[in-house]
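My main concern about presentation is that the manuscript never shows what a single data entry looks like. For the editor and my fellow referees, an illustration may be useful. For illustration, here is how one protein appears when written out as sequence plus structure tokens:

***
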Amino acid sequence: MDLSPPLSGPDRASLRRLWTYLWPGQRARLGGLALVNLVIAGVTTLYPLVIDRAFSLFAARDPAIVWQVPLAVLAIVTVKGGAWYAQSVLTQSIALRAAQRMQEAMFAKLAHADLARMEREPPAALAAHFTSDTLVMRDGIARVLNAQADVLTIIGLVATMIHLDWVMSLVALLVYPLAIAPLEKIGRRIRKASYNLQDITAATAARLTEIFAQIRVVQTYRLEATMSARAETAFDDLYRANARVVRRRNRAEPIMEVLGGAAVAGIIGFAGYRSAIGTGSLGAFTGFVTALLIAAGPARALGTLSAAVNQGKAALSRIVTVLDEAPRILPGTSNALPAQAGLSVEFRDVRLAYADGRAGLAGLSLTIPAGSTAGLAGASGSGKTTALSLIPRFYDANAGQVLIGGHDVRDFSLTALRDMIAWVGEDSILFDETIAENVARGRPGAAPAEIEAALRAAAAWDFVQSLPQGLQTRAGTSGRLLSGGQRQRIALARAIIKDAPILLLDEATSALDAESEAAIHAALIAQQHRRTIIMTAHRLATIRHADLIAVLDQGSVIETGTHTSLLASNGAYARLAAAQG
């Protein structure tokens, strides 16, 4: 008895995708669950027959009533209790495994997703796909799996009722189909409300994450009341969305309750009429009503199943959208690395506009020789970080080419391309693990001596040694247990230990003092013949020793040269230097 709405084409496609995560490796569990559900339905069906048997024994004054019926009831409840436990364990394990597989698939998809796609949703909204969406979908799976027992139980009880009295069975079966139309309408509304609820849940989590991440700003500028008002608005939206789902879900229960009561009332009235005219037996009547009352529970469960299924469909739709989203950056096929040491980097008339319409680059052309150090200078928004982001293909240019060692970056597989590159950004995010583990992320399996050498090159060894647990000190979430300068030095060590032929530094030393920055630059220059270094900086002292400096403005290069030659030319670079004193 399936009272869920009919499936549309997209629904069927989504459910087929779900089946690919539900079926593999779980055939034994699914088969065992089917068997357990059959046992539950079978023993439940015996109750009315036991009642009928009990009345027959009473009427005949048979002494077997003393032991036969009690033993039968005891056997039924024992088997059913064990089967219920097995059903619960199997159902949850199947649903949990399917949810885990979908979480793993989503993570693998998002871990390799385009940066533009990742920036489209805040981190908390992305996390909601793994938490609230999979939780709702998991509950939907469990309800559907358990519904198998309800369907089998109703089929068995209907067969029992027909066996006991087919005329009364016909009367009862005429009532329940009346529930299908209103339940279908309720189901459609629940699905819409559930999708909206999941969006609002993700938005609320994103808003709270933003507020707590900026707690220093909130407290410094006394924004507590303002942020509390924003949070209260979010909680109010969340309350209303939840209330809509609750109201619509709970409409199914009274419908099934009224119909069940109407069926029982009709049967009792009909049985009274038959008794008045001298037909029917008390045992059959009692057994029949027992079967009808027992069937009311599974029937109600199937009636409310529509709500759970529609919530699950909404969650599944959001998950499948993530899984099926086509990447905009398509990898190349070459895994061969260019032979030259250091590797040259070239931009050929590169143009980029972001998806939201912001200008990125407008005809950027620049050649950086292999084994050299290049600095990109310019005002904020001039395109420095954007240019760096095109090299590992965080974004793809709309026009023009970016080449490494004379090869278009789009020809390489993403694995081969990014193996050639190490990156350090201004934010210098670390993982919530030890300093040693964070550094070793640059080269998994690195020896302790290699980790120490990288930390020394990044001017980090002294401060790491001064920490209470040294290399085993945890960095905290996003590295927040360390200062900004300490995080930057650990991130630099992670990049140095990778020993990639191209090192990209995007304001990577902005939080360092002049002495530490000078020490790091000296260490990098000592290894310059092994790698090409490209760095961006607002502070010109960071790039003054670069072999080549390019000044960007509005996404294109307007000056190139060395620090000395650019100062002598008295152009844009000289004006930036004068402004910095």
